[in-house]
Amino acid sequence: MKIRTDFVTNSSSSSFVCFGVQVKRLNIPETDDVYGYLEEKIRGTVLHFGGYEEDYYSLGLDINKAIKAFPDAHLSDVKTIAANEINKAFGTSFEKKDINYVEEGWYNG
User: Fold this and answer.
1) Distance from the Cα of residue 77 to its chain's centroid
2) Which long-range contacts (CB under 8 A, 24 or more apart) does 75-84 make?
3) Is residue 38 included in any domain, yes or no?
4) pLDDT of 57
5) What 3 state SS string does 23-80 have?
6) Which element (helix H / strand E) includes 108?
7) Is the pLDDT of residue 1 over 50?
8) How many angstroms separate the CA atoms of 54 and 109, rounded?
9) Residue 10 domain flag
10) φ/ψ of residue 44, rounded to 5
């Protein structure tokens, strides 16, 4: 049986799922290019970000990358791993209790 592990989208809809935090909780430096800043900070990590507008971006664990990077981890470890990875990339001090399941979808029509 084949299991699809990535997103299915078309030109008029998008979706985003992660265990993470809202980007506005990161206290990132003032910049005109939040997208570029985030891309640079998470390059080479198991993190990803998304959202419809900058003010509502969320950042968290890319489950596909995490499965490969932490093959022996249990589902109960996901929030702790997400907190640790965000903290490494951004110098924050999030804990497991700070991490939420984030699911967003929007229509670009």
Assistant:
1) 16
2) 78/19, 79/19, 81/46, 82/18, 82/19, 82/20
3) yes
4) 85
5) HHHHCCCCCCCHHHHHHHHHCCCCEEEECCCHHHCEEEECHHHHHHHCCCCCHHHHHH
6) none
7) no
8) 19
9) no
10) 80, 5
Answer whether 100's CB lies under 8 Å from 21's CB: yes
What digits encode the pLDDT tens for the residues 35-76? 899 999 999 999 998 877 777 788 999 888 889 999 999 989
3-state secondary structure of 106: strand
Q: Does residue 37 fall inside a structural domain?
A: yes
Query: Is there a domain that residue 8 lies in?
Result: no
CA angle, 25 then 29 then 35, to 5° = 80
How many folded domains does the chain comprise?
1
